[in-house]
Amino acid sequence: IVSICFLSQGLGVAIAKYNTENTLQLAFSEFFPETNIEAQEKILRQLAGSYQLTECDTYLLLESRDYRHLSIEAPVVEDHEMKAALRWKVTDLVDFSVEDACLDFYRLPDAKHTNSKKMLAVIASAMTSIKPKVALCQQVKLTIKVIDIQETALRNLAVLLPENKRGIAILHLLPQSGCIIIQKAGELYLSRKLNIGFDDLNLETNAASNESSDLALEVQRSLDYVESYYGLPPISSLAVIPTPAYCQNLLDQLNENLSISARIMDISTILDTDILLADNTQAYCAGVIGATLRHELETE
Predict the structure, then answer these.
(1) CA 182 to chain CA mean position, Å
(2) pTM for this one?
(3) Who's near 20: CB < 8 A, 6+ residues apart?
(4) Which phi and psi angles does 166 have, rounded to 5°?
């Protein structure tokens, strides 16, 4: 499996292969800070030759800005009619034509109140965002089997944590954006995109800022919502995917403002892999690494 994400800052790649014991192992992961299409194509061609990627299933992971993630009351229709019904429902909620859009959904857990409505998480992406990425993969003879999103990729990593059965929150920050998810036993209860990234937090000096307070507030609100709406036992831990630098300062800022403890989530220690992942690689490749685990979860 090769997972690829075209980020605003460059190209993230993760490659996982099954060993002789039929266990999926992470064989390679790297972030390439290159946004030029020709350069990205060259990188993928080189990797394709080194790792026989033309024989792999390719998972294309969308960047958060490439899709809308919406919570919608589930239409009362048969399953085979669901996507058509949702396409109609999201028409006024997106700024692109839903007639020429890629659309999918997953069911959200039931709220604690028995009379609460059934809800769906709907993912909608304009084909104009997806087609150039698909075309680039096809240029280097890669076969796309799956188009995935950041939230479910991060969920795949969260499932590997010891707090999985009790429930765990994950925080992933990029330079100018971020994402928080809360999941329990593989079910996504909440995902929230953030307009705050690690570049906004004065991590080098560790000086208090409005942005660091805002980030902690968003995390706390998310935790409170899940506890109140779904009736989950309180989530006791926030796992933070490493930032390229000064991650301890980020933990200090969060722990100063949160009612739960924040800790670093070192992806190297929860995967079956012989490679050591640098903090910079984890920051930009957490999503693609998580995406490679998709098949493992589906076959459990």
Answers:
(1) 12
(2) 0.95
(3) none
(4) -85, -35
Angstrom distance (rounded) from CA 165 to CA 226: 15
Token pair belonging to 168: 């765990």
Residue by residue, DSSP assigns 67-135 as: SEEEEEEPPSS-GGGHHHHHHHHTGGGSSS-GGGEEEEEEEPPPPSSTTPPPEEEEEEEEHHHHHHHHH
pLDDT in tens, the chain (300 residues): 999 999 999 999 999 999 888 889 999 999 999 999 999 999 999 999 999 999 999 999 999 999 999 999 999 999 889 999 999 999 999 999 988 899 999 999 999 887 889 999 999 999 999 999 999 999 999 999 999 999 999 999 999 999 999 999 999 999 999 999 999 999 999 999 999 999 999 899 988 789 999 999 999 999 999 999 999 999 999 999 999 999 999 999 999 999 899 999 999 999 999 999 999 999 999 999 999 998 666 545
Q: Are 160 and 166 in contact (CB under 8 A)?
A: no
Decide if 219 contacts 238 (C-beta within 8 A).
Answer: yes
Place of tokens 């048969």: 78
Give the Cα separation of 298 and 70 in Å (integer): 23
Contacts of 127 (CB under 8 A, 6+ apart): 100, 101, 102
